[in-house]
Amino acid sequence: MISVALMGHGVVGSGVAEILTTHKQKLFASIGEEIYLKRILDLREFPESPLADRFTKDFDQIISDRDIRVVIETMGGINPAYDFTKRCLKEGKSVVTSNKELVARHGAELLQLAKDNNANYLFEASVGGGIPILRPINQCLVANMVDEIAGILNGTTNFILTKMINENMPFDDALSLAQQLGYAERNPEADVEGHDACRKICILASLAYGKHVYPDNVHTEGITKITLEDVEYAASWGGVIKLIGSCKLLEDGMMDIVVAPMFVPCTSQLANINDVFNGIMVRGDCTGDVVFYGKGAGKLPTASAVVADTVDCCKHLKSRKYLFWADSTEECVADYKLSKTQVYLRLLADNTEDAYNKVQEKLGSVTKLSKADAPANELAVVTDKALPYGEILDAVDSLTQDGIKVLSNIRIGNL
Amino acid sequence: MISVALMGHGVVGSGVAEILTTHKQKLFASIGEEIYLKRILDLREFPESPLADRFTKDFDQIISDRDIRVVIETMGGINPAYDFTKRCLKEGKSVVTSNKELVARHGAELLQLAKDNNANYLFEASVGGGIPILRPINQCLVANMVDEIAGILNGTTNFILTKMINENMPFDDALSLAQQLGYAERNPEADVEGHDACRKICILASLAYGKHVYPDNVHTEGITKITLEDVEYAASWGGVIKLIGSCKLLEDGMMDIVVAPMFVPCTSQLANINDVFNGIMVRGDCTGDVVFYGKGAGKLPTASAVVADTVDCCKHLKSRKYLFWADSTEECVADYKLSKTQVYLRLLADNTEDAYNKVQEKLGSVTKLSKADAPANELAVVTDKALPYGEILDAVDSLTQDGIKVLSNIRIGNL
Question: Could you give the ipTM of this predicted complex?
Answer without folding.
Answer: 0.94
